[in-house]
Amino acid sequence: MSEELGKIEDLPEDYRHALREAGVAPLWPMMRNVLPHNAPNPVSHVGHWSYANVRPLLLKAGDLTPVEKAERRVLVLSDPGRGLGAMQATASIYLGLQLLLPGEAAPAHRHTPSAARIVVEGEGGFTVVDGERLPMKEGDLVLTPGGDWHDHGHDGDEPVVWLDALDLPLFVYLEGSYAIEGELQAQRNRPDASAVEYAAPGMVPSRTGGRGARRYPMMRYPWSAAEEALRAMARHGEVAELDYINPETGDAVLPALGFTAMMLKSGQTEQPPLRSCSSAFHVVRGSGRTVIDGIEVAWQEKDTFTAPIFAELVHEADEESFLIRIHDRPLQDKLGYYEERTR
Ligand code: GTQ
User: Fold this and answer.
1) Does residue 241 sit within a domain?
2) Whose CB among 33, 116, 166, 233 lies 3.0–4.6 Å from 238's, allowing a Cys bridge?
3) pTM of the prediction?
């Protein structure tokens, strides 16, 4: 195994010129860039977005830009490793903080990337997905799967903010990202499926009826149920981590994005394995600190931070804390290379 491969300068200038003319390039001087030894070499850096810092800027965007001019009023969380304006927080995960003011509506569209929202603050917001009205309460996870019509509305009287997570970078990379605009949708006059078909854990609509389940049968995962379950696990000495899944298939909720809710008791430390997926953490409640490859992120309620692939993480909670980890493990599982390493 050779550590030192030939450099471009090792080649005669007339040969290099002939290569350029022919539209080809030698692999060997670039080989280690694309195939480094033993572990990938991430571009992504640790990111930390303090909600206390970003919130006033987001509210200011509400004054400066009406939703009609913005379509979606969002501040994008740019990966520091890629620089400001990067439309991604990690290689595959896009994150943005979206503001909707009382009475506003964000128009209907559908697009190839899939999205999920974690509600950060405010009452009265809702998203309509293929005619199903999904109420948005703090901490709720609301899906808008790729290809489904969605618009956002707001019946309350305080600003509503949520964190958007999309697999957009992947679709941009594949040159497959586009949107189609439409009219605001008629809303079916019934509660969403989490309160009807999937209201009882471990139970699904009887399969004898012949009507097949929808591909995305449940699109709202209420935080209240997640918190109750995490508390029960912590109380009984289990590791309080729960994956959000499709109740019909047991698969991750979206094709490329996974969501895992976790609880840390006051003073608890956690050292998860090194994972090949990238991660973003949203603090639903609590405060603490996470050391990521030696960099300390001191997090507060509603903050968001990111960890690159194979990062060494140590979480420590200063008080009882709840986080949701957004990751791309479902994509890596499908591609057959998800991996965990012990430190
Ligand atoms: O709410 O549909 O942050 O289409 C980026 C693109 C949110 C949305 C984003 C979108 C949306």
Assistant:
1) yes
2) 233
3) 0.96
| 181 CA to centre of own chain | 23
* Per-residue model confidence (pLDDT) at position 4: 84
Rounded distance from Cα 237 to ligand 1 centre (Å): 39
Which ligand 1 atom is nearest residue 111's CA? 4
Number of domains, the chain: 1
Ligand 1 atom with minimal separation from the 144 CA: 2
28: burial class by Cβ within 10 Å (0-12, 13-18, 19+)?
middle
Low-confidence ranges of the chain (pLDDT < 70): 1-3, 209-211
Range of the domain at 57: 47-205+214-341
- CATH assignment of the domain containing 251: 2.60.120.10
Token pair listed for 74: 């969002």
pLDDT of 213 reads 83
Query: Which residue out of 54, 164, 181 has the highest number of ligand 1 atoms within 8 Å of its CB and is therefore the one to mutate?
Result: 164
Separation CA 168–CA 116 (nearest Å):
11
pLDDT computed for residue 210 by the predictor: 57
Q: Whose CA is nearest to atom 11 of ligand 1?
A: 72
What per-residue confidence (pLDDT) applies to 343? 85
CA dist 79 and 335 (Å) reads: 24
pLDDT for residue 6: 94
Is 15 among the domain residues? no
Asked if residue 193 is part of any domain, the answer here is yes
